[in-house]
Amino acid sequence: MIKLGIIGTNWISKMFVEAALQTGSYTLTTVYSRTEEKGNAFLADLDTDTDNVAVVTTLSDLYTNIDVVYIASPNALHFEQAKVAIASDVHVIVEKPSFSNPTEFAIIEELLTRHENVRVFEAARHVHQSNFKLMQQAVIELPQVQGATFVYQKYSSRYDAYLEGQEPNVLTREFSGGALYDLGVYPIYAAIALFGAPRAVQYLPTLLNNGADGRGTANLFYDQFNVTVIFGKNANSYLSSEIYGLKETISTNNIAELNTITYHDGDGNADNIGVAGTSNPMVAEASDFSRVITDPINEHVRYQQWWQLAKQVNQTLFDLRQSAGIVFPADIKD
Ligand SMILES: NC(=O)c1ccc[n+]([C@@H]2O[C@H](COP(=O)([O-])OP(=O)(O)OC[C@H]3O[C@@H](n4cnc5c(N)ncnc54)[C@H](OP(=O)(O)O)[C@@H]3O)[C@@H](O)[C@H]2O)c1
After folding, report:
1. Contact at 8 Å (CB) between 272 and 261?
2. Domain limits, the chain
3. d(Cα 278, Cα 276) in Å, to the nearest integer?
4. SS3 label, residue 128
5. Which ranges carry the GFO/IDH/MocA-like oxidoreductase domain (predicted)?
6. What is the pLDDT of residues 222-253, one digit of tens each?
7. Residue with the nearest Cα to atom 40 of ligand 1?
8. Ligand 1 centre from 75 Cα, in Å?
9. pLDDT of residue 114
């Protein structure tokens, strides 16, 4: 069993723990929280026996008795928390977006050269799902790709908090937040997994008063086509996402959730090529990561592919921000 530790006690950590336990490969060992009270409340909320799970309030205590840490803290904290884990020879599953910029990513890469048995995974849950793989296969079979439009725009309760004058972490540059890093990362991930790294990018954001992006439109430029990406946290969209062949189109109801995958042939006939997903959308990634941790030699190629993908996404997110003049404090710290 892989001994799992958790950083962050919000709902996403609960979902990940439930997914991990569902795979049968992990056992929850330790929960880190800034306060014992919140750590205990997190455990009480889990629908599993937690008698042997420790709650700790320092990272050094967290890393003593676990094999892997799942980091679901505000984005800007991932880097320092992951560094301590790697230095302690603990594997890392870090929520998207893994790190704030390519400088941080490079420091993590360099640190990994000195801890070569440690594996770091970015929790981009959608690209591990069966429906993503089915969509990927359908794209390979297209006679030609002529472009794509990906949309992920959901009104967030955190935007209500922002309107009330609060500064929720996810809508601040201090915590490396904003629409691009929070939701835009999903369609950007999908585009790069399907088509590779773009040769150029452009981001046109709508900014909040604090300089973070509330929503926006990005363009990823490839040699033969462009991908248009629409995302945001301050409005709802009901548009599906589409990939354009010649006369063929592949569509999904939602590029981050992938509940449906439809192939439309040249005559307009629609065929459902997706499968029903698991009720918990994090099971596929939890299962993939456990395979690499337990069988690192045979799973090395897949691991390297995810790592290179994470690196390209990290660079692309940064380039998009640069094109819009959005600077995070994490970019300018010593
Ligand atoms: N894959 C997905 O579907 C998905 C969905 C949602 C979020 N996420 C990702 O998960 C991560 C967490 O997002 P979130 O919305 O849950 O963030 P959040 O609510 O701002 O913070 C998450 C946790 O981090 C700790 N925390 C909060 N503020 C902190 C601070 N100032 N200093 C230190 N610790 C702090 C809190 O735990 P304690 O109070 O217990 O210390 C909190 O429960 C992000 O990277 C996000 O992108 C992923």
Report:
1. yes
2. 2-118, 127-282+314-332
3. 7
4. helix
5. 159-250
6. 999 999 999 999 999 999 999 999 999 999 99
7. 33
8. 8
9. 98
Strand partners, 270: 264
Structure tokens at 326: 């959005």
Residue 273 pLDDT > 70: yes
Best substitution site from 34, 73, 189 to test ligand 1's pocket, by max atoms within 8 Å of Cβ? 73
Query: What would be the CATH architecture of the domain defined by 2-118?
Result: 3-Layer(aba) Sandwich (3.40)
What's the mean pLDDT when you consider all of the chain?
Answer: 97
Q: Is the pLDDT of residue 265 over 90?
A: yes
Topology (CATH) of 127-282+314-332: Dihydrodipicolinate Reductase; domain 2 (3.30.360)
Is 193 strand, coil or helix? helix
Q: CB under 6 Å to ligand 1: residues?
A: 8-10, 12, 33-34, 38, 72-75, 77, 95-96, 123, 125, 169-170, 182
Parallel, antiparallel, or unpaired: how do β-strands 2-7 and 68-71 relate? parallel
Asked if 323 contacts 203 with a C-beta cutoff of 8 angstroms, the reply is yes
Task: Determine how many CB atoms are found less than 10 A away from the CB of residue 311.
Answer: 20
Q: What is the DSSP letter of 97?
A: S
Residue type present at position 88 = S
Q: How far apart are CA 313 and CA 307, in angstroms?
A: 10
Distance CA 40, CA 54 (A): 9
For residue 39, the one-letter residue type is G
